[in-house]
């Protein structure tokens, strides 16, 4: 199977997984507890750190000195793949947050924020900078 065939298989699998994961996401039973102000702040913080990660990943995608270690994106993703990945990730984080019981949300937010922070920090230590 060539690179194009693998990409098509990946895209179809991704579409199926996203569809299957959202089938129940809009069922009202998962939305018993509204998002708190702290949830909303944590979602904003997650997405701000994730935006930095996205810009670093775009630098990796456009620079042959580096390669991406995210197995979903592959070593040399296109800009479209990077942007699509991070948009879907942000949307998924928001939707999953609404499904998690309120008492477990701080753990969810904390993990996501610190995980992204460490990725950004590691990329920075490797010399990956955001250029505009």
Give me the strand/helix succession. HHHH
- Estimate percent helicity: 55-70%
Structural class: mainly alpha
According to DSSP, the number of beta strands is 0
Oligomer type: single chain
Strand count, sense and closure of the main sheet? none
Radius of gyration: 17 Å
Report on the structure:
The protein has helices at 3-22, 37-61, 79-99, 105-125. It is mainly alpha-helical and 132 residues long. The protein folds into two domains: 1-28; 31-125. Helix 2 packs antiparallel against helix 3 and helix 2 runs parallel beside helix 4 (105-125). The termini are far apart.
Key structural traits:
132 residues, mainly alpha, 66% helix, globular
Describe the structure concisely for a colleague.
The mean pLDDT is 83.
Structural topology:
Blueprint: H1 3-22, H2 37-61, H3 79-99, H4 105-125
Helix pairs in contact: 2-3, 2-4
